[in-house]
Write a structure and sequence with these properties.
five-stranded mixed sheet; alpha/beta; 19 strands; about 425 residues; 13 helices; globular; four-stranded mixed sheet
Length: about 425
Protein backbone atom coordinates (compact mmCIF):
# COMPACT_ATOMS: atom_id res chain seq x y z
CA UNK A 1 0.00 0.00 0.00
CA UNK A 2 1.15 3.54 -0.79
CA UNK A 3 0.60 6.11 1.96
CA UNK A 4 0.85 9.88 2.15
CA UNK A 5 0.58 11.78 5.44
CA UNK A 6 0.59 15.40 6.53
CA UNK A 7 -0.69 17.70 9.22
CA UNK A 8 -1.10 21.47 9.31
CA UNK A 9 -1.99 23.85 12.11
CA UNK A 10 -5.58 25.19 11.97
CA UNK A 11 -5.59 26.97 15.33
CA UNK A 12 -7.56 30.24 15.27
CA UNK A 13 -6.48 33.34 17.13
CA UNK A 14 -7.99 33.78 20.61
CA UNK A 15 -11.06 35.96 20.39
CA UNK A 16 -13.01 33.64 18.09
CA UNK A 17 -16.23 32.22 19.45
CA UNK A 18 -16.13 28.57 20.47
CA UNK A 19 -18.74 26.06 19.34
CA UNK A 20 -20.76 23.45 21.16
CA UNK A 21 -22.11 24.93 24.40
CA UNK A 22 -25.01 27.33 24.73
CA UNK A 23 -24.06 27.87 28.38
CA UNK A 24 -20.62 29.25 27.49
CA UNK A 25 -19.66 32.92 27.80
CA UNK A 26 -18.12 34.07 24.51
CA UNK A 27 -15.59 34.68 23.02
CA UNK A 28 -12.45 32.57 23.60
CA UNK A 29 -9.77 34.18 25.74
CA UNK A 30 -6.68 32.06 25.13
CA UNK A 31 -5.14 28.76 24.07
CA UNK A 32 -4.57 25.43 25.82
CA UNK A 33 -3.34 23.31 22.90
CA UNK A 34 -3.18 23.70 19.16
CA UNK A 35 -5.66 22.32 16.61
CA UNK A 36 -4.65 20.38 13.50
CA UNK A 37 -5.90 19.11 10.17
CA UNK A 38 -4.39 15.65 9.56
CA UNK A 39 -4.45 13.91 6.20
CA UNK A 40 -4.06 10.30 5.10
CA UNK A 41 -3.84 9.52 1.40
CA UNK A 42 -3.98 5.85 0.39
CA UNK A 43 -3.33 4.11 -2.94
CA UNK A 44 -3.64 0.40 -3.69
CA UNK A 45 -4.07 -1.30 -7.08
CA UNK A 46 -5.57 1.81 -8.67
CA UNK A 47 -7.90 2.60 -5.78
CA UNK A 48 -7.38 5.94 -4.04
CA UNK A 49 -8.80 7.75 -1.01
CA UNK A 50 -8.04 11.02 0.76
CA UNK A 51 -9.11 11.33 4.38
CA UNK A 52 -8.69 14.60 6.29
CA UNK A 53 -9.48 14.65 10.01
CA UNK A 54 -9.63 17.92 11.96
CA UNK A 55 -9.74 19.13 15.55
CA UNK A 56 -13.11 20.80 14.99
CA UNK A 57 -16.68 20.34 16.17
CA UNK A 58 -17.77 19.29 12.68
CA UNK A 59 -18.15 20.44 9.10
CA UNK A 60 -21.01 22.37 7.62
CA UNK A 61 -22.12 20.67 4.42
CA UNK A 62 -21.05 23.72 2.41
CA UNK A 63 -17.44 23.15 3.52
CA UNK A 64 -17.58 19.50 2.49
CA UNK A 65 -19.08 20.30 -0.91
CA UNK A 66 -16.57 23.05 -1.60
CA UNK A 67 -13.60 20.85 -0.74
CA UNK A 68 -14.88 17.89 -2.74
CA UNK A 69 -15.44 20.15 -5.74
CA UNK A 70 -11.87 21.42 -5.41
CA UNK A 71 -10.50 17.88 -4.98
CA UNK A 72 -12.33 16.71 -8.10
CA UNK A 73 -11.02 19.58 -10.21
CA UNK A 74 -7.47 19.69 -8.82
CA UNK A 75 -6.70 16.19 -7.56
CA UNK A 76 -8.90 14.06 -9.80
CA UNK A 77 -10.71 12.55 -6.82
CA UNK A 78 -14.41 11.69 -6.91
CA UNK A 79 -16.78 12.28 -3.99
CA UNK A 80 -16.52 8.65 -2.91
CA UNK A 81 -12.74 9.07 -2.64
CA UNK A 82 -12.79 12.01 -0.20
CA UNK A 83 -13.78 12.02 3.46
CA UNK A 84 -13.64 14.97 5.86
CA UNK A 85 -14.16 14.16 9.53
CA UNK A 86 -13.90 15.97 12.85
CA UNK A 87 -13.06 15.10 16.44
CA UNK A 88 -16.13 17.07 17.66
CA UNK A 89 -14.16 19.10 20.19
CA UNK A 90 -16.37 21.66 21.94
CA UNK A 91 -13.40 24.00 22.41
CA UNK A 92 -12.78 24.89 18.79
CA UNK A 93 -14.08 27.51 16.34
CA UNK A 94 -17.61 27.49 14.91
CA UNK A 95 -17.65 25.43 11.73
CA UNK A 96 -21.28 24.26 11.95
CA UNK A 97 -24.46 26.26 12.50
CA UNK A 98 -25.62 25.90 16.11
CA UNK A 99 -27.98 28.61 17.32
CA UNK A 100 -26.77 30.40 20.48
CA UNK A 101 -23.73 28.10 20.76
CA UNK A 102 -21.16 30.26 19.02
CA UNK A 103 -21.49 32.24 15.80
CA UNK A 104 -20.49 30.58 12.52
CA UNK A 105 -17.24 32.30 11.52
CA UNK A 106 -16.87 33.03 7.76
CA UNK A 107 -13.38 34.47 8.21
CA UNK A 108 -12.13 31.31 9.88
CA UNK A 109 -13.88 29.15 7.28
CA UNK A 110 -12.05 30.98 4.51
CA UNK A 111 -8.69 30.22 6.12
CA UNK A 112 -9.77 26.62 6.80
CA UNK A 113 -10.42 26.05 3.10
CA UNK A 114 -6.81 27.03 2.40
CA UNK A 115 -5.45 24.75 5.13
CA UNK A 116 -7.49 21.78 3.88
CA UNK A 117 -6.08 22.23 0.40
CA UNK A 118 -2.59 22.63 1.83
CA UNK A 119 -2.68 19.44 3.90
CA UNK A 120 -4.16 17.48 0.98
CA UNK A 121 -1.37 18.62 -1.31
CA UNK A 122 1.31 17.79 1.24
CA UNK A 123 -0.06 14.31 1.87
CA UNK A 124 -0.28 13.47 -1.83
CA UNK A 125 3.16 14.91 -2.47
CA UNK A 126 5.06 12.75 0.02
CA UNK A 127 4.28 9.09 -0.67
CA UNK A 128 5.88 5.97 0.81
CA UNK A 129 5.07 2.26 1.05
CA UNK A 130 3.41 1.12 4.27
CA UNK A 131 1.79 -1.97 5.71
CA UNK A 132 -1.35 -2.16 7.83
CA UNK A 133 -1.55 -3.24 11.47
CA UNK A 134 -4.80 -3.39 13.46
CA UNK A 135 -5.24 -3.73 17.23
CA UNK A 136 -8.17 -3.70 19.60
CA UNK A 137 -8.36 -2.86 23.29
CA UNK A 138 -10.88 -1.97 25.95
CA UNK A 139 -11.43 1.09 28.11
CA UNK A 140 -14.23 1.79 30.58
CA UNK A 141 -13.97 5.57 30.62
CA UNK A 142 -17.07 6.92 28.83
CA UNK A 143 -20.41 7.03 30.66
CA UNK A 144 -23.96 7.15 29.31
CA UNK A 145 -24.86 10.72 30.18
CA UNK A 146 -28.61 10.15 29.86
CA UNK A 147 -28.83 7.91 32.95
CA UNK A 148 -31.92 6.23 31.49
CA UNK A 149 -33.12 2.65 31.22
CA UNK A 150 -31.64 2.29 27.73
CA UNK A 151 -28.13 3.19 28.98
CA UNK A 152 -25.37 1.75 26.78
CA UNK A 153 -21.63 2.29 26.39
CA UNK A 154 -19.04 1.04 23.93
CA UNK A 155 -15.76 0.14 25.66
CA UNK A 156 -13.91 -0.98 22.53
CA UNK A 157 -10.83 0.92 21.39
CA UNK A 158 -9.79 0.16 17.81
CA UNK A 159 -6.47 1.33 16.40
CA UNK A 160 -5.08 1.17 12.88
CA UNK A 161 -1.39 1.67 12.22
CA UNK A 162 0.50 2.29 8.99
CA UNK A 163 4.00 0.90 9.47
CA UNK A 164 7.09 1.55 7.40
CA UNK A 165 9.51 -1.17 6.34
CA UNK A 166 11.88 -0.29 9.19
CA UNK A 167 9.14 -0.90 11.79
CA UNK A 168 8.39 2.75 12.54
CA UNK A 169 4.89 4.18 12.16
CA UNK A 170 4.04 6.79 9.53
CA UNK A 171 0.45 7.19 10.77
CA UNK A 172 -2.13 5.72 13.11
CA UNK A 173 -5.78 6.15 14.00
CA UNK A 174 -7.56 5.56 17.30
CA UNK A 175 -11.31 5.10 17.54
CA UNK A 176 -13.17 5.41 20.84
CA UNK A 177 -16.72 6.52 21.55
CA UNK A 178 -16.75 9.52 23.90
CA UNK A 179 -17.81 13.15 23.52
CA UNK A 180 -14.74 15.44 23.84
CA UNK A 181 -16.48 17.78 26.30
CA UNK A 182 -14.29 17.33 29.38
CA UNK A 183 -13.34 21.01 29.53
CA UNK A 184 -17.04 21.89 29.66
CA UNK A 185 -18.90 25.16 29.07
CA UNK A 186 -16.90 27.00 31.75
CA UNK A 187 -13.81 26.75 29.53
CA UNK A 188 -13.03 29.68 27.20
CA UNK A 189 -9.65 28.42 25.96
CA UNK A 190 -9.08 26.84 22.53
CA UNK A 191 -8.35 23.10 22.79
CA UNK A 192 -8.69 19.73 21.12
CA UNK A 193 -9.93 18.42 24.50
CA UNK A 194 -9.60 14.65 25.14
CA UNK A 195 -9.21 13.80 21.46
CA UNK A 196 -6.24 16.10 21.02
CA UNK A 197 -4.48 14.70 24.06
CA UNK A 198 -5.13 11.08 23.04
CA UNK A 199 -3.52 11.76 19.65
CA UNK A 200 -0.50 13.46 21.25
CA UNK A 201 -0.04 10.60 23.72
CA UNK A 202 -0.19 7.84 21.10
CA UNK A 203 2.19 9.70 18.78
CA UNK A 204 4.73 9.82 21.62
CA UNK A 205 4.39 6.09 22.30
CA UNK A 206 4.84 4.85 18.73
CA UNK A 207 8.24 4.91 17.01
CA UNK A 208 8.52 7.19 14.02
CA UNK A 209 6.57 10.24 15.27
CA UNK A 210 3.44 9.28 13.32
CA UNK A 211 0.53 11.49 12.36
CA UNK A 212 -2.27 10.29 14.68
CA UNK A 213 -5.97 10.73 14.01
CA UNK A 214 -8.16 10.36 17.12
CA UNK A 215 -11.62 9.58 15.78
CA UNK A 216 -14.93 9.50 17.61
CA UNK A 217 -17.16 6.45 17.52
CA UNK A 218 -20.92 6.40 18.02
CA UNK A 219 -20.92 8.71 21.02
CA UNK A 220 -24.10 10.81 20.93
CA UNK A 221 -25.07 9.51 24.37
CA UNK A 222 -21.55 9.11 25.81
CA UNK A 223 -19.57 11.64 27.83
CA UNK A 224 -16.37 11.55 29.89
CA UNK A 225 -16.89 10.97 33.63
CA UNK A 226 -17.13 14.73 34.30
CA UNK A 227 -17.14 18.16 32.65
CA UNK A 228 -15.51 21.46 33.60
CA UNK A 229 -12.39 19.60 34.72
CA UNK A 230 -8.81 20.86 34.85
CA UNK A 231 -6.63 20.43 31.77
CA UNK A 232 -4.46 17.99 33.72
CA UNK A 233 -7.47 15.66 33.93
CA UNK A 234 -8.08 16.04 30.18
CA UNK A 235 -4.45 15.01 29.59
CA UNK A 236 -4.92 12.03 31.92
CA UNK A 237 -8.05 10.79 30.16
CA UNK A 238 -6.53 11.28 26.72
CA UNK A 239 -3.51 9.32 27.90
CA UNK A 240 -5.77 6.52 29.10
CA UNK A 241 -7.25 6.15 25.63
CA UNK A 242 -3.78 5.99 24.06
CA UNK A 243 -2.42 3.65 26.74
CA UNK A 244 -5.27 1.19 26.18
CA UNK A 245 -4.02 0.45 22.68
CA UNK A 246 -0.37 1.59 22.22
CA UNK A 247 1.39 -1.61 23.28
CA UNK A 248 -1.03 -3.83 21.38
CA UNK A 249 -0.49 -1.76 18.23
CA UNK A 250 3.31 -1.94 18.54
CA UNK A 251 3.18 -5.74 18.91
CA UNK A 252 0.86 -6.51 15.98
CA UNK A 253 2.16 -8.18 12.83
CA UNK A 254 1.32 -6.49 9.52
CA UNK A 255 -1.76 -7.63 7.60
CA UNK A 256 -0.60 -8.87 4.16
CA UNK A 257 -2.10 -7.83 0.81
CA UNK A 258 -4.86 -5.54 2.07
CA UNK A 259 -7.27 -4.41 -0.69
CA UNK A 260 -8.50 -0.80 -0.60
CA UNK A 261 -12.09 0.09 -1.47
CA UNK A 262 -14.51 2.93 -0.90
CA UNK A 263 -18.26 3.13 -1.35
CA UNK A 264 -20.67 5.92 -0.53
CA UNK A 265 -24.44 5.99 -0.05
CA UNK A 266 -26.96 8.76 0.61
CA UNK A 267 -29.89 7.69 2.80
CA UNK A 268 -32.99 9.95 3.03
CA UNK A 269 -34.11 10.03 6.66
CA UNK A 270 -37.72 11.11 7.26
CA UNK A 271 -38.30 14.09 9.56
CA UNK A 272 -41.08 14.93 11.99
CA UNK A 273 -42.54 17.67 9.78
CA UNK A 274 -45.14 19.88 11.52
CA UNK A 275 -47.78 22.22 10.18
CA UNK A 276 -47.96 25.81 11.45
CA UNK A 277 -50.25 24.97 14.37
CA UNK A 278 -47.97 22.23 15.63
CA UNK A 279 -44.84 24.36 15.17
CA UNK A 280 -46.39 27.06 17.35
CA UNK A 281 -47.67 24.56 19.91
CA UNK A 282 -44.25 22.87 20.13
CA UNK A 283 -42.46 26.20 20.58
CA UNK A 284 -44.97 27.40 23.19
CA UNK A 285 -44.55 24.17 25.15
CA UNK A 286 -40.76 24.37 24.92
CA UNK A 287 -40.78 27.90 26.33
CA UNK A 288 -42.48 26.57 29.46
CA UNK A 289 -39.96 23.78 30.04
CA UNK A 290 -38.23 24.68 33.33
CA UNK A 291 -35.06 22.59 32.94
CA UNK A 292 -33.63 24.16 29.76
CA UNK A 293 -34.81 27.59 30.88
CA UNK A 294 -32.83 27.16 34.10
CA UNK A 295 -29.74 25.95 32.25
CA UNK A 296 -29.66 28.34 29.27
CA UNK A 297 -32.13 31.14 30.02
CA UNK A 298 -32.48 33.75 27.28
CA UNK A 299 -30.23 31.78 24.92
CA UNK A 300 -32.73 28.95 24.99
CA UNK A 301 -35.66 31.33 24.48
CA UNK A 302 -33.95 32.89 21.46
CA UNK A 303 -33.11 29.49 19.98
CA UNK A 304 -36.72 28.31 20.28
CA UNK A 305 -38.08 31.52 18.77
CA UNK A 306 -35.62 31.37 15.90
CA UNK A 307 -36.61 27.73 15.33
CA UNK A 308 -40.26 28.78 15.23
CA UNK A 309 -39.61 31.68 12.87
CA UNK A 310 -37.40 29.70 10.48
CA UNK A 311 -39.77 26.76 10.21
CA UNK A 312 -42.87 28.91 9.76
CA UNK A 313 -40.98 30.73 7.03
CA UNK A 314 -40.03 27.46 5.36
CA UNK A 315 -43.71 26.48 5.22
CA UNK A 316 -44.53 29.71 3.40
CA UNK A 317 -41.74 29.10 0.93
CA UNK A 318 -42.68 25.43 0.51
CA UNK A 319 -39.03 24.44 1.02
CA UNK A 320 -39.20 22.74 4.42
CA UNK A 321 -38.45 19.24 3.05
CA UNK A 322 -39.62 15.98 4.54
CA UNK A 323 -36.22 14.28 4.65
CA UNK A 324 -32.62 14.94 5.59
CA UNK A 325 -29.73 13.28 3.80
CA UNK A 326 -27.53 10.98 5.84
CA UNK A 327 -24.25 10.04 4.19
CA UNK A 328 -22.55 6.70 4.76
CA UNK A 329 -18.92 6.60 3.62
CA UNK A 330 -17.25 3.19 3.85
CA UNK A 331 -13.49 2.76 3.54
CA UNK A 332 -12.61 -0.93 3.33
CA UNK A 333 -9.15 -2.24 4.20
CA UNK A 334 -9.47 -6.00 3.99
CA UNK A 335 -11.73 -7.12 6.84
CA UNK A 336 -11.53 -3.68 8.46
CA UNK A 337 -14.17 -1.08 7.57
CA UNK A 338 -13.96 2.57 8.58
CA UNK A 339 -17.53 3.81 8.29
CA UNK A 340 -18.04 7.57 8.21
CA UNK A 341 -21.42 9.05 9.08
CA UNK A 342 -22.55 12.69 9.09
CA UNK A 343 -24.45 12.59 12.38
CA UNK A 344 -24.29 12.12 16.13
CA UNK A 345 -25.41 8.52 16.49
CA UNK A 346 -26.17 6.64 19.69
CA UNK A 347 -23.61 4.03 20.74
CA UNK A 348 -25.80 0.98 20.09
CA UNK A 349 -25.44 1.68 16.36
CA UNK A 350 -21.93 0.19 16.23
CA UNK A 351 -22.98 -2.91 18.16
CA UNK A 352 -25.81 -3.52 15.68
CA UNK A 353 -23.32 -3.42 12.80
CA UNK A 354 -20.85 -5.69 14.57
CA UNK A 355 -23.56 -8.31 14.99
CA UNK A 356 -24.36 -8.17 11.26
CA UNK A 357 -20.84 -8.74 9.90
CA UNK A 358 -17.55 -10.48 10.58
CA UNK A 359 -15.68 -7.31 9.58
CA UNK A 360 -14.07 -5.10 12.16
CA UNK A 361 -16.10 -1.89 12.29
CA UNK A 362 -14.56 1.49 13.05
CA UNK A 363 -17.42 4.01 13.21
CA UNK A 364 -16.21 7.55 12.40
CA UNK A 365 -18.84 10.06 13.49
CA UNK A 366 -19.03 13.69 12.32
CA UNK A 367 -17.80 12.70 8.85
CA UNK A 368 -18.74 14.78 5.79
CA UNK A 369 -21.10 16.98 7.79
CA UNK A 370 -23.16 16.92 10.98
CA UNK A 371 -26.95 16.65 10.72
CA UNK A 372 -27.40 16.40 14.49
CA UNK A 373 -28.59 13.64 16.80
CA UNK A 374 -29.89 10.23 15.74
CA UNK A 375 -31.23 8.54 18.90
CA UNK A 376 -32.53 5.01 19.26
CA UNK A 377 -36.26 4.26 19.34
CA UNK A 378 -35.90 3.59 23.06
CA UNK A 379 -34.45 7.07 23.59
CA UNK A 380 -37.42 8.63 21.78
CA UNK A 381 -39.70 6.88 24.24
CA UNK A 382 -37.62 8.13 27.18
CA UNK A 383 -37.21 11.72 25.99
CA UNK A 384 -34.30 13.92 27.06
CA UNK A 385 -32.04 16.55 25.52
CA UNK A 386 -31.10 14.68 22.34
CA UNK A 387 -34.75 13.94 21.54
CA UNK A 388 -36.70 16.94 22.85
CA UNK A 389 -34.34 19.92 22.82
CA UNK A 390 -31.29 19.58 20.55
CA UNK A 391 -33.22 20.25 17.32
CA UNK A 392 -34.01 23.78 18.53
CA UNK A 393 -30.28 24.56 18.54
CA UNK A 394 -29.72 22.76 15.22
CA UNK A 395 -32.61 24.76 13.78
CA UNK A 396 -34.76 22.20 12.00
CA UNK A 397 -37.28 19.41 12.36
CA UNK A 398 -35.96 16.41 14.24
CA UNK A 399 -35.59 13.00 12.53
CA UNK A 400 -38.49 10.63 13.02
CA UNK A 401 -38.15 7.81 15.54
CA UNK A 402 -36.65 4.81 13.79
CA UNK A 403 -34.18 6.85 11.74
CA UNK A 404 -31.16 5.34 13.47
CA UNK A 405 -32.49 1.83 12.96
CA UNK A 406 -33.15 2.58 9.29
CA UNK A 407 -29.61 3.87 8.87
CA UNK A 408 -28.20 0.76 10.55
CA UNK A 409 -30.01 -1.43 8.03
CA UNK A 410 -28.66 0.68 5.16
CA UNK A 411 -25.16 0.52 6.65
CA UNK A 412 -25.38 -3.26 6.93
CA UNK A 413 -26.39 -3.45 3.28
CA UNK A 414 -23.50 -1.15 2.37
CA UNK A 415 -21.07 -3.48 4.14
CA UNK A 416 -22.43 -6.37 2.09
CA UNK A 417 -21.90 -4.31 -1.07
CA UNK A 418 -18.32 -3.63 -0.03
CA UNK A 419 -17.71 -7.33 0.60
CA UNK A 420 -19.19 -8.31 -2.80
CA UNK A 421 -16.88 -5.82 -4.49
CA UNK A 422 -13.95 -7.38 -2.65
CA UNK A 423 -14.94 -10.87 -3.85
CA UNK A 424 -15.25 -9.61 -7.43
CA UNK A 425 -11.75 -8.15 -7.26
CA UNK A 426 -10.39 -11.50 -6.19
Amino acid sequence: MILGTAQVDITPEPGVELSGFAARTQPSTGLLDRLYAKALYLEQDGARVLWIHCDLIGFDTSIVKSFRDWARENLGLAEEQVMLSATHTHAGPCTIHLCEAGEFDPAYIESLHLRLREVAGQAMGHLEPASLVVAEGRLDLAVDRRKAASAHTDPRVLAVGFRRGDGTFAAATINYAVHPVALGPSNRLISGDISGQAAISLARQLPGSPVVLMTNGASANLNPPAENVAFSKVMEWGGMIANSIAERLREQEPVPDVPLQTVRRIVPLPLDVYDANRINATADKALKNPAPLAEWGDKYRRAVERWRSNLLGSLKNADNGSHREAELFALGLGNLVLLGINAEVFSEFTDWLRRSTSDRICLVSYANGDMGYLPTRAAYAEGGYEVEIAHFFYGGFRPQAGGLELLAREAGDLLLQLRKQDLCRK
